[in-house]
Amino acid sequence: MNRIVLIGNGFDLAHGLKTSYKNFIDWYWKDWGEKLLYGLNKTETDGLCSFKLKENINLSNWAYVWGFYYKRKNPLAPWNPNDIISIAKEDKDLCDYWTSPFLQQICKSIETKKWVDIENEYYDLLSKCALKGNTETTVEELNQQLHTLQEKLVQYLSLVNNTDTKIYESIWNKIYSPINPKEISVEKFFQLKEYIDWCVKQDNSYWASKMQRYKEEYNSDDVDSYKRHYHENYYVDYPRPFMLPDHIMLLSFNYTKTVHLYHNQNFSLNYIHGELDKPQNIIFGYGDEIDENYQALKNLNDNGCLCNLKTIKYLETDNYRNALAFMDSAPYQVCIMGHSCGNSDRTLLNTLFEHKNCLSIKPYYYIKEDGTDNYLDIIQNISRNFTDMKLMRDRVVNKTYCEPLISM
């Protein structure tokens, strides 16, 4: 049996990194404040927004605004970039301020929901532009704006560091924990039972290597206690070494290096969406071929509507192919660590969750400050990645056998 660990942004957040899209957008505006502080032009723009000094402002560039135009009680105090961007946005007598519909939609989501999924916002606006005649922006402009955001995101994430390693041991134990037989779907349990029963009866090197591996990993000589069997309903408590995953793939949807903390010779590491060291291979777009709008977009015969489709971008590297090969190689359990399982990755997740070798799907949830958790949120998102709801109910591990990614 194998295990695939889905690594999402919550994994980085659990390690103390400010990698949410909200963190990124906050940095984006702070960076704009720095640009305006030292701007050498009357108009500053990046394709997502622009700030143009009014004609009656008799200054040749933005840098002069903060030295001559705005007077403060303490002119020697350094300017706060956030104050600068607030003034530039709100002072209608100072400049003409423009934001693209894409950036407006992103900021509105943060304002109302306190979070945003930029890839979903892109897909939503793409559908409106291409299918519903939205004339606020064109597909070409939208694609360029997404590309600009991708470059900015790479720049921001390259600055994020100071990984918190205090939770390393706890996360490591979860990644390499034995698979509880009660976590396995009913559909797959009896097939697996026949295989393990056969293995237990064999006096061969496979059994010996399993026991030795268990002793090394857990520093335990109590081997005999794990050879006992007992029945509870239709479940069997097999020797624990048999329930350790043979191979583990860390399937990271992040671009950061946090997951490298857990990478060793026994694990394969797959940056399915690329990594910061190779920005040319980063995948940033939408991946929902199940959505009804996707077929309509494909039928438009406009490559601009598909250029940021993840399925297309996957063909630029062999990461997706390696993931498929791992799925096909043996039965596997999916463990979800910090991935929301949202629609922007639905094509890949559908393949992963409904694959014939998938034994179960175990989400590790997040405990909020008020004591509630997001287990049901993850499950609801997981359900959208299934076309067979009966299969979903069988494969998703119920909360009784799940646990938080990190404890409060």
Write up what this structure looks like.
The chain has 408 residues and is α/β, with parallel strands linked by helices. Helices cover 43% and strands 12% of the residues. The protein contains 16 helices and 10 strands. It has a 5-stranded parallel beta sheet with strand order 8-7-1-9-10. A hairpin with a 3-residue loop joins strand 2 and strand 3. Helix 2 packs across helix 4 and helix 5 crosses helix 6. The longest helix has 21 residues. About 4% of the residues have low confidence.
Query: Structural class, please?
Result: alpha/beta
| Assembly form of the protein | single chain
Uncertain segments of ≥5 residues (pLDDT<50)? Answer: 221-235
How far is the first residue's CA from the last residue's CA?
Answer: 31 Å
In terms of DSSP E residues, the strand content is: 5-15%
What average pLDDT do the residues reach? 89
Give a quick precis of the structure.
It contains 16 helices and 10 strands.
Give the SSE map.
Blueprint: E1 2-7, H1 9-14, H2 21-38, E2 43-45, E3 49-53, H3 63-69, H4 81-90, E4 95-99, H5 101-113, H6 118-131, H7 139-159, H8 168-175, H9 186-201, H10 205-218, E5 231-232, E6 235-236, E7 247-252, E8 267-271, H11 292-299, H12 310-313, H13 319-329, E9 332-337, H14 346-354, E10 358-364, H15 375-383, H16 389-395
Parallel strand pairs: 1-7, 1-9, 7-8, 9-10
Antiparallel strand pairs: 2-3, 3-4, 5-6
Helix pairs in contact: 2-4, 5-6
